[in-house]
Specification:
151 residues; mainly alpha; elongated
Length: 151
């Protein structure tokens, strides 16, 4: 059974997803501006558009994961705030998620360790999407022809 400190720790880790989301939002907007800037400068390149669309698409998927991670962080925090009635909180949570259509009824009753691993897996995927966005941006910077003039 999960302890209240484990639940608090998972909730705290999941709240770090907000910082990842903020950075990804900036990169997504930068990708959108990069794509639109090509049309304004009348020098549209297929590679530039693909990179721009990639940044934006990855950013949108990351935003979806960020919403799920934030939701999980709130749920873990709520359950951790009432550790004396963990079994009751677990049953109430499962019932609420099932009635809202957010969880199949047969997924209820899972141990908190399994729930923690699933939630932290979402956080890892969110970080992976952000890292991919950063790599795409770095490839654009390093492959840009103006870089030769800077050095």
């Amino acid at each position: 059974m999960a302890s209240d400190m484990q639940l608090f720790s998972v909730a705290s880790l999941l709240r770090r997803g907000q910082a990842l989301d903020q950075l990804s939002t900036g990169l997504t907007l930068l990708g959108a501006l990069y794509g639109l800037g090509q049309f304004l400068l009348a020098s549209v390149s297929l590679v530039g558009l693909v990179l721009s669309v990639s940044l934006v698409a990855l950013g949108l998927v990351e935003k979806y994961l960020a919403l799920r991670v934030a939701f999980d962080a709130d749920l873990f925090q709520r359950v951790a705030d009432a550790p004396a009635s963990l079994d009751h909180s677990t049953q109430a949570l499962d019932q609420a998620l099932s009635s809202l259509g957010l969880q199949p009824a047969d997924r209820g009753g899972r141990p908190w360790h399994e729930r923690s691993q699933g939630a932290l897996g979402l956080l890892r995927r969110q970080a992976l999407l952000l890292a991919t966005q950063v790599l795409i941006l770095l490839s654009v910077i390093l492959a840009s022809p103006w870089l030769a003039f800077a050095g």
